[in-house]
Amino acid sequence: MTLTATLPEAAPAGAALHWRALEGLYASAPVNSLFASTLAITGEGTARIAFDIDERCYHAAGAAHGTIYFKMLDDAAFYAANTLVTDKFLLTTSFNLHFSRPVKVGRVIAEGRWVSGRRRVLVAESRLIDRDGEEIGRGTGTFQRSRIALSSLPGYAAGLVG
Predict the structure, then answer these.
(1) Residues 143, 76: contact at Cβ < 8 Å?
(2) What's the 3-state SS for 21-85?
(3) Which of 41, 86, 119, 151 has CA 20 to 30 A from 55's CA?
(4) What distance, in Å, lies between the first and last C-alpha atoms of the chain?
(5) Which residues are registered as beta bridge partners of 138?
(6) Is 130 within 8 Å of 138 (Cβ atoms)?
(7) In the prediction, which pLDDT does 109 show?
(8) Which helix (H) or strand (E) holds 132?
(9) What Cα–Cα distance (Å) separates residue 35 from each residue in 30, 53, 159, 161?
(10) With bands split at pLDDT 50, 70 and 90, how would you rate the model's confidence at 85?
């Protein structure tokens, strides 16, 4: 999967503001305080998460647990899809993932890309790349508009002014 995107600098002001607010939303989510990770919206329909893996993420056999793969893949696909929805928070309704290889330590990049849908249901895919540039997993998610207004979420609102 190769990501092609509108560069944030070239994006219309409203879109760039929405993307920065989504980054604020990610940073404000309590679950993300458990992980060394950062989100960058890289363009319309694309997102990238840098995630540092260490032994705190391991299962009993000494490699990153599958829940870590799911978190990174789901988040990257979710935020790629939510770049196209400016009024509502999306909810993951299904997610399929494939593990390619284990990872033990280092920086992992999750790249998300919107695939289809713009109204009620959106589909996005994502992949994980390890520090050697190898793909270690990929996934496809279906996301549905919720009734939750993005503007009602403090993390999103803080991203609009921060």
Answers:
(1) no
(2) HHHHHHHHCHHHHHCCEEEEEEECCEEEEEEEECHHHECCCCCECHHHHHHHHHHHHHHHHHCCC
(3) 41
(4) 32
(5) 98, 127
(6) no
(7) 98
(8) none
(9) 10, 9, 20, 25
(10) very high
